[in-house]
Design brief:
Blueprint (H helix, E strand, L loop, with lengths): L1 E9 L13 E7 L5 E10 L8 E6 L16 E6 L2 E4 L2 E5 L4
Parallel strand pairs: 3-5
Antiparallel strand pairs: 1-2, 1-4, 2-3, 4-5, 6-7
Amino acid sequence: MLLGKVIGTVVATRKEPELNGLRLLLVRELDSAYLPAGKIIVAIDAVGAGDGEIVLFAAGSSARLTSVTKDRPVDHVIMAIVDSVQADGETVYDKSAG
């Protein structure tokens, strides 16, 4: 699993039928300081994530193991919305803090 931040949406009116009804979101990978860094990927939203939220996402064959993405042609899936992250005894991210 990887941490990322939702930074936008992707709209594709023409796509493989297996992708119909799935929401596509742009996610930027986060670095070890939980700051935006790394690649921007397109991920299927399996949990109702919104713009600006920190999420957990899976890549590769693991992305096809959720109930939403099973047997579909996807490489990335958002599978959790992060409420908080604690590291070394400190809270480094708290969704409720804004």
